[in-house]
Amino acid sequence: MRKNSVKNTRINGEVQRVLAEIIRSGIKDPRIAPMTSVVAVEVAPDLKTCKAWISVLGDEKAQADTLAGLESAEGYIRSLLAKTVNLRNTPQVTFILDQSIAYGVDMARKIDEVISKDNREKTEDD
Questions:
Q1: Of 21, 28, 66, 69, which is the most buried if we count CB atoms within 10 A?
Q2: Which of 41, 37, 48 lies closest to 15 in space, CA to CA?
């Protein structure tokens, strides 16, 4: 099976949807932040492993606590995933913290600063 096959893409989407639902309503761990979202999921073609990129709204402590809570609940999450998604093998989920949203917000802030500085310099020159 090719890595970007239609079947693998559908499996990735379904696992992402189910993982988001499990994290939102299935886990009662207080370490997991309420604003946690599953950004992307990549299931290996052999269905043995799965990488799930998660984004957490909050500071670094909230991100670290959420990642620790998800890693400790990995077995429970995997069992719920097995009950919900009908796959030959239930993948072992590895959670990875996604920094792309925070990076994008930071870059947008820097761009806004440069534009406002440029506008101030233009008005001072006039």
A1: 66
A2: 41
- For residue 86 the two structure tokens come to 């009908």
Which of 41, 45, 43 minimizes the C-alpha distance to 1? Answer: 45
Yes or no: say if 98 and 55 are a contact pair by the CB < 8 Å rule: yes
In the chain, the domains with their CATH numbers are: 6-98 (3.30.300.20)
Quote the pLDDT of residue 54: 92
Give the distance, in angstroms, between the CA of residue 73 and the centroid of all CA atoms in the same chain. Answer: 16
Q: Any idea what DSSP says for residue 23?
A: I
Burial of 16 (0-12, 13-18, 19+ CB in 10 A): buried
Extract the tokens encoding 28: 């009662």
Residue 7's identity, in one-letter code, is: K
pTM of the model: 0.76
